[in-house]
Design brief:
Nucleoside Triphosphate Pyrophosphohydrolase, elongated, Adenine DNA glycosylase, seven-stranded mixed β-sheet, 14 helices
């Protein structure tokens, strides 16, 4: 791994052409047309693990609904999660909501200008804090998101594993040393754009890169091999079942705990089944679950649909059963009965949202509640 000092000449060879390229070809994005720290903060959170093209409609809808930090802080968490539905990584929405409440109670609904105060907010790490302060408040803090990490690994031909502590520390050093004291905001957005649109993970477009001539990886023919990737791990697969219990005009739903995977979202009741279960075993597990937890006989349930879904760390097959019941039983939190017209008002995970869409379609066709 290269650990030579980054001198002024290296900084010029990187920073000057990068800024020139950005001022000519940088992306025109809505959060770049404002200096409102709230908008910049929101964009940074939404862009975590998510591409710009996906974020854009969510960004506009979110600001239309919650135009200020105060509006977000006073909103019900369920309304925030509903607006976030489909964007994934729902912890971001919960942290955003909680951070807004902290900003209202402790900072007069304004984003503070000290690094220590910003990084202490829920959902904000070192890189996000640096981006917010640099872009919104004109400070000069380095960042090291995925795009920047990739650009630096290639520019300096860093052949160590970026996940190792020493390599990570060196990358932070590179990021900080390269930052110009003036025009830092444009520089950060430029290097993020370079990673997102030119120095891409699988197919870097080196001939369009403003720093191609100085890129060490390009000179060594390593641009397709860097950054070093972790060995691929086998992604586990799990089977789950969910029951759609219908009584007259209502459907039984369950809210997930406020901590953990998909916290606070609604779903149709069910659970994970034993690995390598056959279809017959899944049916029996479904019947046993509703008999033991609700005293409900679901032996006449019908297989309704099967959903394939990929989470960050595992794959899921969701087996969905439909059951018409004659009597609406009394239920308590986290269970609830939802009238069919209100299902779409609740925030569901992406997999269970597919069930909602199917139910809505069947309802519109007059098939579901017959």
């Amino acid at each position: 791994m290269i650990k030579n000092p980054i001198d002024a000449a290296v900084r010029r060879r990187f920073t000057a052409p990068l800024l020139e390229w950005y001022h000519s070809l940088g992306r025109d994005l809505p959060w770049r047309r404002t200096d409102d720290p709230y908008c910049i903060w929101l964009s940074e959170i939404m862009l975590q693990q998510t591409q710009v093209v996906t974020v854009l409609p969510y960004y506009h809808r979110f600001l239309e609904t919650f135009p200020t930090i105060k509006a977000l802080a006073s909103a019900d968490l369920e309304a925030v999660l509903k607006l976030w539905q489909g964007l994934g990584y729902y912890a971001r929405a919960r942290h955003l909501h909680r951070a807004a409440q902290i900003l209202v109670s402790q900072f007069s609904a304004k984003m503070p200008e000290s690094f220590e105060s910003v990084i202490a907010l829920p959902g904000i790490g070192r890189s996000t804090a640096g981006a917010i302060l640099t872009i919104a408040h004109g400070k000069c803090y380095p960042i090291l998101d995925g795009n920047v990490r990739r650009v630096l690994c290639r520019f300096f031909a860093i052949e160590g594993d970026p996940r190792e502590k020493s390599v990570d520390a060196w990358l932070w050093h590179c990021s900080e040393t390269l930052m110009p004291k003036h025009n830092a905001s444009h520089y950060l957005q430029a290097i993020m754009d370079l990673g997102a649109t030119v120095c891409m993970p699988k197919q870097p477009s080196c001939t369009r890169c403003p720093v191609e001539k100085s890129c060490a990886a390009r000179k060594k023919g390593l641009e397709m091999l860097l950054p070093i990737k972790a060995p691929s791990k086998k992604v586990p697969h799990y089977d789950y079942f969910a029951g759609v219990i219908c009584v007259d005009n209502a459907v039984l739903i369950r809210r997930r705990p406020l901590k953990g995977l998909l916290a606070g979202l609604w779903e149709f009741p069910g659970e994970r089944v034993a690995e390598n279960s056959k279809q017959a075993s899944i049916v029996l597990a479904h019947e046993r679950f509703f008999r033991e937890h609700l005293g409900l006989d679901t032996r006449e349930s019908k297989s309704y649909m099967t959903i394939q879904h990929v989470f960050t760390h595992f794959k899921m097959t969701l087996h969905v059963f439909l059951h018409h019941s004659k009597k609406r039983m009394e239920v308590a939190s986290p269970l609830d009965w939802a009238e069919r017209e209100t299902l779409s008002d609740r925030p569901f995970s992406s997999a269970h949202q597919k069930i909602v869409l199917q139910l809505t379609e069947k309802q519109n066709q007059g098939e579901l509640f017959q």
